[in-house]
Amino acid sequence: MATTASDGLEQLMDADIIYGESAIMQSLNAIVAEIAKTDIPILLIGESGTGKEVYARLIHRVSVFGEVPLRKVFCAALDAGRLLAEMREEFVSNGGSGEAAAGTVFLDGVHELDAACQRALLSLLPDGEPRGRSGKTVSRFISSTSHNLEREVEAGHFRRELYFRINGVILRLPPLRERKEDIPALLEYFLAKHSNEFKKDTPELSRETRELLISYHWPGNIRELENFAKKIVAVGDPMLALGNLRAIPATVPETAKSANISSLKAAARAASRRAERELILKALEQTHWNRKRAARELQISYKSLLYKIKQINVEVSSSGEL
After folding, report:
1. Could you tell me where the DSSP H helices lie in the chain?
2. Would you tell me how many other CB atoms lie within 10 Å of the CB of residue 138?
3. Rounded distance, CA 106 to CA 76, Å?
4. Which of 135, 125, 134, 225 is closest to 185 using CA atoms?
5. What is the Cα–Cα distance from 180 to 194, expressed in whole angstroms?
6. Does residue 15 have a pLDDT over 70?
7. pLDDT by residue (tens digit) across 55-72?
8. Percent of the chain surpassing pLDDT 70
9. How far apart are CA 167 and CA 141, in angstroms?
10. pTM above 0.85?
11. Residue 74 forms beta bridges with which residues?
């Protein structure tokens, strides 16, 4: 029995990390399940690391073109002549037979196309769809961008007609900071994946470490989260890996979260605790979690630093004794 697009999507969800219990991801995946079986052009919009290529490959595999390889085009590395040659050879000429070839073209970073490349690409889409000599649709275009193309159009940097040709459906991929409820499961997946890759046991993370990771803003999105998980497995020390994150934000202690700060003095104390926590974490990160060196940087005694670390619920591995 043939596999439907939605069935195929379910089968590929875990393998491709198109995962999400958050409402925004559930909505996105429902749309993907419906449009994957069509040949409508798709524009994927999202920050770097949000999974644009992962979605492009998933959509291709569960589409009518899924039996042939996806053709990925790096837009930043193209000139107009090369773009025309590649597209015609791969998707129109079919090796010179004159028959229409079928497939999916993934335009990675479509905002990188210069004016000549935009004009060349538009010439391949006279009616909004790529067509062969027989007049039949020969491929589907999936484009990705991290830019606001509407603003690029208004600024005269991107052709308006090309924008409307490639955005049959626009899928906006949310940054990880807007779907933090998905972080624990994604982290577990990446830890297990790279533990298997390195033939190591999957590391256990403390509750405090997990809370810090959920509070982190992840500017590199899912790509950064996976690299972090890989580093934890590789070095075998979660706290050492934590020290390499860009900046763990200060978190309010549970007592402060639950307290009703009703006075200026109480607010000042809470702010002081947050500032102290941030300084301690920064010193530990800069000294690679060496507590003795961190104490010297903070100009306090080693014993005082140990007490403060305990107060702010930060777990430091034994390597911090160096």
Report:
1. 5-16, 23-35, 52-61, 80-91, 115-123, 149-154, 160-166, 183-198, 207-215, 221-235, 238-242, 254-258, 264-286, 291-298, 302-311
2. 25
3. 13
4. 225
5. 21
6. no
7. 999 999 888 888 888 989
8. 73
9. 9
10. no
11. 108
